[in-house]
Structure prediction request, 783 residues.
Amino acid sequence: MLYSTDRILTTHAGSLPRPPELRDMVLAKASGAAVDPAVFDARLRAAVAQTVRAQVDSGIDCVNDGELSKTNFTDYVRWRIEGYETRPWSGPRRLSITARDETKFAGYFEANPRMRALGPPSMPVCVAPLRYVGQADLAKDLDNFKAALTGFNVAGAFLPANTPGTIEHWMLNEHYPSDEAFVFAIADAMHEEYQAIVDAGFLLQIDDPDLPDGWNCLPGITLPEYRAYATMRVDALNHALRGIPPEKVRLHVCWGSHHGPHHDDIPLRDIIDLIFRVNAGSFSIEASNPCHEHEWRVFEDVKLPEGATLIPGVIGHCTDFIEHPDLVAERLVRYANLVGRENVLAGTDCGLGTRVGHPSIVWAKFNAMAEGARRATKLLWGRA
Amino acid sequence: MRASIDHILTSHVGSLPRPDALIAANHAHDAGAPFDEAALREAVAEVVRHQRDLGIDIPGDGEFGKPMSQRVNYGSWWRYSWQRLGGLNLDGPGLYDMAARRSQPGQVVLTSFGDRRDRRQFAEAYADPESGITTGPRPPAPICIAPITYIGHDAIQSDIANFKAAMAASGVEEGFMSAVAPGSASRIANEYYKTEEELLFACADAMHEEYKAIVDAGLVLQLDDPAIAENWDMVNPEPTVEDYKKFSMLRVEALNHAIKGLPADRIRFHLCWGSWHGPHMTDIPMADIVDVMLAINVQAYSFEAGNVRHEHEWKVWQHVKLPDDKLILPGIVSHATNVVEHPDLVAERILRFTNVVGRERVIASTDCGLGGRIHPQIAWAKLQALAQGAALASKQLWG
Prediction:
């Protein structure tokens, strides 16, 4: 377990900027175009090494591989499981994270169609038992990351993986008899990926935006109905995490990273117990944007699980303004005062990689976070 | 002017989203058609009604009389003055095309917009058309070629008449109207005056007429002068704070000269660091210029405090004494993000300020004008969140 024992440590939520040539190759591969595997592998390996170095240089203590091999944090699973066929599809995903905002802000989404959370042009439909087949791709990720870390003495190294509840956003089920059977089948498939990441010695980050943003996908649902919906998916996630010690797992939740109004995101207070139901030792929660910044107060009366750490987002993707280090420090101190300084790590609202205007903004925000963590350390420990 | 006597009042910085019909009317006017006065009058009536219905206590006219022919436009608050000042050749080079100028120690000069320091530091981000750091159209800018005079008498009287009619129709007693301050208005090329100081004070003398017209009409005058803060980014290389303050104090003197004889208790001042959606790494800290701002002879000060570059600066007021007769209008909701501020956050931000300066001294406002800078639906949702959050804060403060 990583604690801020004698200073506030920094980390982030996942995706990082990647070189344009690599991005083009990742997208080409995903669209089925022929990409020279040797060239791709070499580029990816070099880019992962570079991104680890850049994180260390920007003052990030717990680093990752920037998700550089993946189309995005969830769709990559398409290439790692089988048991589905693809059918032509246009429009939103099966479950769209902008659905609730679109009911109130239709004009905004009409004027800014890119803000709609669109899916790929085909829909996977589960028609047979799901099975994990991503071993080779995953092994490459593990190997590239391990190699990139050589020579660096980082406080922590994590790799993200997606969850059953979020994978369900983009896959239809025609095989399993119920939603529950389907979601637990995804869990069984993903278990293999989770286990392999931990076995490789890395901290496993579970990316579960669905836990809050399923609410945004289902505009008509009531709170009790939603809590039942989310509970089943958390139980499926725990099923996927079976046998993995919680201290090897950190959970990341956010309300969907689209740049829309987020006017009716579900309050953290309504789901905090479900978040803590996940068998994780560390909890990364979106907390810096103006829809969620006030929710630090939830921790005035909600206790962290015994031994757990909290990673509030203290910098965010929702604006290209760079957070002032004093604001970062102010946010960290608020949390430290409530849950204990050693239990707080500085984090980001979501992966910044493709979500802010430009790569240079990601690194400037990281520098601001690192400087803010130093200032918070000074305030909390009375020394730099 | 009204203060938060029994609840936290709400207002905003000025620009509000123009309805499509008004944008079309402005566009047609640009192309030579006679201006559709009725469309403007009706739009002002509607925008005042809308503000009242959302719970904005001190509304404005949305700056609808300051022409905007596009949905995205960050400059109308200032460019309108090019139509209201004589002595200008309106066909000069664009602000981004001018030559860069370098400052020397003890001798601060403004460089071109294209040479601003944030723009240099993040050159690739600013150059990327997909980065979202957009500020709308870049029309030709004026060159001063003759004595500056005020020629906007008809325009300001029309703005006043439209706004007062709208206020009466909506039962609103106090409203504000913005006007550009000399320091911001004088950031144009000069071929006539011997010095920039002469141009600055000529703008002050000319704009005085507009300020007086607004105050004489019984409206609260808001002086827009981001230049006091954002010029810092427009001085290259970075000057010393001391040099910069000296440079800015001259703009304050010009502004005080421009409002000479007008009642301070009918005037508020707006400061911001430039409203474009860039990184803003080169914004000068509020702590360094707060005394410059407070040297302006007005009753109330509006400033950005709702974005991530300036949110922490509420603490400045723990160390700076706000004179007893002054009010502040901190930015509580912002154009910097599409994400709508939660009313609980709005209340929290308001309480931070009231805890330091007292509840009667705070009017909840916006970072900058929302019109042209954010989608209309989001702008209205933010003003609604502002009103809801102010009500929550009032409940805590007055019980």
